[in-house]
Design goal:
The chain has helices spanning about 5-30, 45-65, 90-105, 140-145, 165-170, 190-200, 215-230, 260-265, 275-280, 285-305, 315-335; strands at about 30-40, 70-75, 85-90, 110-115, 120, 130, 135, 150-155, 175-180, 240-245. α1 packs across α10 (about 285-305) and α9 packs across α10 (about 285-305). The protein is globular, with a radius of gyration of 20 Å. It is α/β, with parallel strands linked by helices. The strands form 2 sheets. Strands 3-2-1-4-8-9-10 form a 7-stranded mixed β-sheet, with helices on both faces. The protein is about 45% helix and about 15% strand. The chain has 2 domains: about 5-20 and about 275-335, no CATH class; about 30-270, Rossmann fold. It is built from 11 helices and 10 strands.
Length: about 350
């Protein structure tokens, strides 16, 4: 039995599983469930800022990315707030109950996203997010997320001093983003502002496919955060990090090609495929179908790269060439259908 034959059989089985999963996702109308927790401000300017970031993000996720309103739960510092997504104070008990509700309604293959906005403190296992009443610790979040065994999960901690969340929460198949590298980067986080802006304004969709991936949002926010410090000629006091392969070798500059960023590159808030394709196609269903096929080919490229260590160089190069040629042809079809050169 040749290595090439064995490699091709491995690829065939993996790609068949991917196709089956994609068909299941489409038929089940897979959804994204989002929990946004804005913490204690400590002073009016921070309270107002954290409230605005939570409100803007929740609104954009429904209006722009078409997440169903019942699937967006936003908690904050106030007991009540005039917003359709607002669920009340962001106490630890309230967040835990919402996580339990998300776990009960989320189907296999759907997406779970938990986002913290505010102040953080503590080191390693004592890391926490400042909330009304008892703080949420990294141990709490680890326990909550352990219940999502059949869903795609992302935890985004946009608080100051959040860096020590990452090595504890990082695990294969989960995207973890923190606004800082360590717990000692405790100054006000500008990264949070730009991460939210990545979804509220048309600034982060680098490949212009109508979608913003977690990787695109991360890279945009990290770049703009650095620019703020550079323009002010100040020492940068926050360095955002990402881990999405469970190695805990987090990075500030994930490429999404090899190593860190591969999962985040394919993690979109909206239901996989259809909304992004429709947005990219300007509502034209024929062109939307072409975009959907392109997205599937991009997924094959990512899966092939993930399999690289298990394949011989000859099999990997041959299969990658086949998929890349198909991807180039599909992109050409899209340009022709859109009347672009």
């Amino acid at each position: 039995m040749s290595d090439r034959g064995a490699g091709r059989r491995l690829l065939s089985s993996v790609f068949a599983a991917l196709v089956a999963a994609a068909c299941f996702t489409a038929s089940a109308k897979a959804q994204t469930h989002v929990l946004i927790a804005s913490g204690l401000g400590g002073e009016p300017r921070f309270s107002q800022r954290f409230r605005a970031l939570g409100a803007d993000l929740a609104s954009a996720l429904q209006r722009k990315y078409r997440i169903a309103a019942p699937n967006i739960a936003w908690f904050g510092e106030d007991s009540t707030f005039a917003d359709s997504h607002y669920r009340g104070r962001s106490t630890r008990d309230a967040l835990e109950k919402e996580i339990a509700a998300m776990r009960a309604r989320a189907k296999a293959g759907e997406q779970i996203v938990v986002i913290f906005i505010g102040h953080g403190a503590g080191q390693e296992g004592e890391s926490r997010v400042s909330l009304p009443g008892p703080d949420v610790t990294v141990g709490d979040v680890q326990r909550w997320m352990a219940g999502f065994t059949e869903q795609r999960v992302a935890v985004v901690n946009l608080t100051s001093g959040s860096g020590d969340f990452l090595p504890i929460l990082a695990t294969p198949g989960r995207v973890v983003i923190t606004a800082t590298k360590t717990a000692f980067e405790r100054n006000e986080s500008r990264f949070a502002e730009f991460f939210v802006k990545a979804y509220t304004a048309d600034v982060a969709d680098v490949d212009k496919d109508g979608r913003v991936s977690l990787l695109e949002a991360f890279r945009y926010a990290a770049r703009e955060t650095k620019r703020v410090y550079d323009d002010a000629t100040k020492l940068q006091t926050e360095h955002a990090q990402l881990d999405d392969n469970g190695t805990r070798q987090n990075t500030a500059e994930p490429t999404g090609r090899d190593g860190q960023g591969l999962l985040a590159r394919r993690f979109f808030f909206e239901a996989p495929g259809v909304p992004g394709a429709s947005i990219a196609a300007g509502g034209d269903q024929g062109i939307a179908a072409l975009y959907h096929e392109r997205f599937a080919l991009e997924g094959r490229v990512d899966s092939l790269r993930a399999l690289k260590p298990k394949l011989t160089p000859a099999v990997y190069d041959a299969e990658l060439e086949i998929v890349l040629v198909s991807l180039a042809r599909k992109s050409r079809e899209i340009r022709k259908a859109e009347g672009r050169p």
